[in-house]
Design goal:
globular; two-stranded antiparallel sheet; mainly alpha; 159 residues; 6% strand; 67% helix; homodimer; disordered N terminus; Arc Repressor Mutant, subunit A; DNA-binding; 7 helices
Amino acid sequence: MATNLSDETAGLPGFFADLVRCETRLYNALNDRLRERHGIVTSQFEFLCYLRDHPGSRVADLAAEFAVGVGATSKGADRLERRGWVVRQPNPSDRRSSLLALTHDGSELVDAAKKTFASALAELLGDTLDGSSDSAAAVRVISKLRSKLERNQVGMPTG
Amino acid sequence: MATNLSDETAGLPGFFADLVRCETRLYNALNDRLRERHGIVTSQFEFLCYLRDHPGSRVADLAAEFAVGVGATSKGADRLERRGWVVRQPNPSDRRSSLLALTHDGSELVDAAKKTFASALAELLGDTLDGSSDSAAAVRVISKLRSKLERNQVGMPTG
DNA sequence: GTACACTATATGCCATGGCAACTAACTTGA
DNA sequence: TCAAGTTAGTTGCCATGGCATATAGTGTAC
C-alpha cells in the first residue's frame, strides 16, 4: 500500500509527494504531543519560538517567515495574546504596527515545549535521520531549497 | 532574514523547520499555478491523481493515503463529484461504502494538470534537485522517512 | 500644510480540516 | 437468526487560513 515502483521513480513529482506526506504526518504527530502536554499546536509553537529568538518582531515579519497571510498572522497573534503568552507593545517608530514579544509565561511555555518538541522529533525521525552521509546530504538539500524559495519569495500568500 | 547559523545547526528541529517551510511555499506556489490554469488546488490534484492510479478506491483509502480525516475526505470527494470529475459507484461487496472513480472529464483534467504540475515543479526545484549525489541522497532519505511514518501509522487524524 | 499615494494591521466572509455524533451495514457468537 | 459489537461514511460544529476590504498612520510633492 505504501509505495510502488512507479512512485519511487516518478522524479520530482514523486519527491514532492513524499515531502508532503512526511510533513503532514510529522506535523500531525507533533500537534498531538504538544496539545496533550502544553495545550498548543505546532504552528503556535513555531510562532512562539520565533518570537523568543526575534523579540520585537512585527506581524509582517512573522507572516514573511512562515509564508502565511498577514491577516491569519494577526489572528494568530490575537489568540496567543488572549492566552497571555504574547504582548503587543507600541512601536515607537511607527504607530501603525506593534512590536510582539513573549510574556514571562510565554517564555516558560516555549522552554518546556522545546523539550517535548525535540524529544518527539528524535523519536519520530531519529533513526532515519542519523549521522549517515545520506542524512547529512538531505539536510543540506532541504536547507538549500528553503533558502532558494525564500530568496525568490516563492509561495507567499496575497494577504 | 532567511537563515542564520543557529537555524542551520539546530539539528532535527532545524531540519523540520526547513522541511515545513519548503512544503508550505511549494504547496502555495503550485496552488497558484493549478488554480489559474485548471481551477483546482494541489490537494484536489493529488486526490484526482490517486484515483487515476487507483480507481475503485474508497473514502477510507484516500484518507489513509493522505493522512487526513475521513470526514474531510468525504467532503473533498463531494466537491469533486459536484464538479463532475468523480463518481461514487455502489460497492458490490459492501453497501456501506462506495467505489470512487474518475469521470471522463476528470481523466482529461488530470492529464492536463499533470503537465502543469510537472513543469511548475521542474521550475521550482529543478536546479536544486538536479542529478547531484546530494539530491539523490535527499530523495532516498525522504522516501525512506515517508515509508517509515506510514508503516508506523504516524500522524493519522482521528476522524 | 495638505492632498495623495503607500504601508501595516485588523476584520469579515468564505472554504477547508479536525473531531464528534449519528446512521447504515457488516460480523460474530451463542 | 438475532443481539451486540464493529466498521464505513456522512454531517454538524468549531477552529484556522486566504483574500478582500476597511482603518489608521506614514511619507512626499507641491
